[in-house]
Amino acid sequence: MIFPMYILLTLSIGDFIEWAVASSAAVPWSEGLIHYLVWWAVDAPCAVYGAYRGFNSPLAIDPEVGSVKRDIPDIPWYLRRMAIVCLYGPLIFGSVFYEFHYIMVSVWASFMIYGMFIILFVSMLMLGVTIASLSIVVTYKSLCHQNYNWWWNSFCLGASGGLYMWLYSAYWLFMKEKYDVLSADFIYFLSMTLISICFSFMCGSISVLSSYLFVERIYNASSRGEFTKF
Hints:
mainly alpha; 7 helices; globular
């Protein structure tokens, strides 16, 4: 519920600023209230139901897990969380950099309408394959070094792409945009922060799901004697 509330708050602040400067892009308060009520009617029950199913559905992993936690030994520097963010974030953002640049030009710097949707679709497929491949490799190496806390490292690996998207957006604001009104800069900052966070959550979800399916596969295979690395 925190993330949808953040989206709602960001859009509300942006609309309030546009209303304060008498912009034609401002959404009327009555229409905004209707959107708010529709959000509560649709998103809140789905979030509660998803949380209930997630906490009550058993994992599809055959081997039993011991109740005693083992100490995690020292791991190589390239498998630490900060190193993962610094090393793999540029690769993730780089896989969609050119299309993101063209979208930025279309939205913020010109009146052209972005229409290369087939190329964008291919870029998104490349993004998904890149995230899944990197996540599986890092998770496998972490398990080889007896680090069973792989899930947050996996999420940070995918979400790090959004950090570099936000940094590029900040570079774009200070180097290429020439807004004369402070409210326009603030709207840009709110919008690109929201987009970067949404991109982070999307990439992080792809990364965690890929690692989970990989871990489920190898542990089920090891229980049948098909995988003996561990």
